[in-house]
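// run 5 | inverse folding | seed 20
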């Protein structure tokens, strides 16, 4: 029988390890989260206890185990068109303004998880372009990044089951942007998939290789980081944005100490942040 208890020493060691690897701060007494995320790996790797699994991951000798542990702790399934207002603002306010000034558009979806956010962005842009055929005639590129290489491979396929599709996707958009697949799931249509490029990226590392963006979505991510790491991430995002570029954060997140880099733009409803030029 597998031992799914996590000792205090193992939890402390794993918390420090996860913060160093990913910047994620577990905080105190979150053993239940570690148990729920890692217990299935005991059977996958035939390890008898969570303490032994954690010890092996922290030592780093088994690269496959290490990657699976990081994937398990950092992957969260999200919603289609989460919170609605960023996508409404995109279609009604932001895209018309940018389309009047430039022929090409670049957007970054950071920590894209299971892919719903970048695909929601792509669908929003296609809806706008269908209503405004001449917009962004030089193309649109959406770069979606995540730490989990396993999840990114799934995102590229664009396959989703009924449970995933039920979370925030309207019947109209399901009909317009998805097709039946041999697996029994639905697949995001090719015209949507080709707009998105998925890349592996640790937000603790450099973003220089991504280039510059007009819009960055970094939503419901910063809440997992310490204030110091959050500040560094916001500084790097600001450097990745074009002058006056736009940043969307999660509804419960703020730029806090990065107010010298961004100006808040309040809308009805919602808000976004604009890089100060």
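// decoded
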């Amino acid at each position: 029988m597998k031992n799914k208890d996590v000792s205090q020493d193992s939890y402390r060691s794993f918390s420090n390890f996860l913060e160093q690897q990913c910047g994620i701060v577990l905080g105190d007494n979150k053993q239940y989260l570690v148990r729920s995320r890692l217990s299935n790996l005991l059977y996958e790797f035939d390890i008898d206890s969570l303490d032994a699994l954690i010890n092996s991951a922290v030592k780093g000798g088994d690269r496959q185990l290490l990657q699976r542990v990081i994937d398990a702790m950092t992957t969260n399934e999200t919603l289609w068109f989460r919170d609605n207002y960023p996508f409404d603002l995109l279609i009604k306010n932001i895209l018309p303004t940018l389309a009047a000034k430039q022929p090409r558009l670049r957007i970054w979806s950071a920590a894209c998880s299971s892919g719903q956010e970048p695909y929601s962005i792509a669908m929003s842009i296609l809806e706008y372009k269908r209503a405004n055929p001449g917009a962004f005639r030089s193309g649109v590129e959406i770069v979606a990044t995540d730490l989990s290489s396993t999840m990114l491979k799934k995102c590229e396929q664009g396959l989703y089951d009924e449970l995933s599709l039920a979370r925030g996707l309207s019947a109209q958009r399901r009909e317009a942007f998805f097709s039946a697949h041999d697996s029994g799931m639905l697949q995001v249509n090719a015209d949507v998939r080709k707009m998105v490029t998925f890349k592996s990226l640790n937000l603790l590392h450099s973003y220089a290789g991504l280039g510059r963006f007009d819009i960055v979505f970094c939503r419901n991510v910063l809440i997992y980081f310490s204030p110091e790491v959050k500040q560094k991430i916001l500084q790097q995002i600001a450097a990745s944005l074009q002058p006056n570029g736009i940043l969307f954060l999660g509804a419960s997140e703020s730029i806090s100490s990065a107010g010298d880099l961004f100006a808040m733009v309040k809308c009805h409803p919602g808000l976004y942040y604009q890089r100060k030029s």
